């Protein structure tokens, strides 16, 4: 028996007004799904994703993803689209992505409050700060939103944020505070992070 077709490894449940995966989809089918598109639904609880062990691409555009949304660990996931959601605290959300999606290479977060751009009222400096912070925290990232991560951009991101993060961590550890209390300096986008 040969490999299964790529169509059998894709599941699209987009634009169905769903809050959970339909129960008529069997676990055998879920086991082989590599690409899941559940965009433009009403998902806010993503614990069901643990039933997709082969998933490498997840499209969540236009759902109810927020800063504190929880995801199960997904070691194979390399592509995540989260456009048009409600993520407002970049620090908290990126920390969740780093912990649960260690192989993440392609991330799109356009039209979220925490992803400032000209299209949602953000300034150019806020856009640059957003990109630098995300790139500095996700080392394997190749594309953020609609733009490839360049070597120069990665160098600048690490120079700006890794240094500040290490300094903050050392100071906080000396005071015996937990990592959860560390605040990453967000320069121009501080006001966006504090809104959640």
TrEMBL record:
Comp. bias (Basic residues): 165-176
Database matches in InterPro entries: LRMDA, LRR_dom_sf
Gene3D superfamilies: Ribonuclease Inhibitor
Top-rank lineage group of the source organism: Eukaryota
SUPFAM superfamilies reported for this sequence: L domain-like
Residue numbers spanned by region Disordered: 165-196
PANTHER family, alphabetized: LEUCINE-RICH MELANOCYTE DIFFERENTIATION-ASSOCIATED PROTEIN (PTHR46282), LEUCINE-RICH REPEAT-CONTAINING PROTEIN 72-LIKE (PTHR46282:SF1)
Name of this protein: Leucine-rich melanocyte differentiation-associated protein
Taxonomic source organism: Holothuria leucospilota (Black long sea cucumber)
């Amino acid at each position: 028996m040969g490999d299964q077709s790529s169509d059998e490894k894709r599941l699209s449940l987009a634009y169905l007004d769903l809050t959970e995966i339909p129960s008529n989809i069997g676990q055998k089918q879920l086991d082989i799904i590599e690409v899941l598109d559940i965009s433009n639904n009403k998902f806010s609880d993503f614990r069901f994703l643990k039933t997709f062990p082969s998933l490498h691409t997840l499209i969540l555009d236009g759902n109810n993803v927020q800063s504190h949304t929880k995801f199960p660990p997904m070691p194979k996931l390399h592509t995540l689209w989260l456009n048009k959601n409600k993520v407002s605290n970049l620090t908290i959300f990126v920390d969740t992505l780093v912990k649960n999606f260690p192989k993440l290479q392609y991330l799109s977060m356009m039209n979220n409050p925490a992803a400032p751009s000209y299209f949602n009222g953000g300034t150019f400096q806020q856009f640059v700060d957003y990109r630098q912070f995300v790139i500095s925290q996700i080392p394997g990232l190749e594309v953020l939103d609609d733009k490839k991560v360049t070597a120069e951009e990665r160098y600048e991101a690490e120079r700006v944020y890794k240094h500040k993060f290490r300094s903050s961590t050392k100071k906080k550890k000396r005071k015996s505070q937990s990592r959860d209390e560390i605040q990453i300096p967000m320069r121009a986008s501080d006001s966006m992070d504090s809104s959640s």
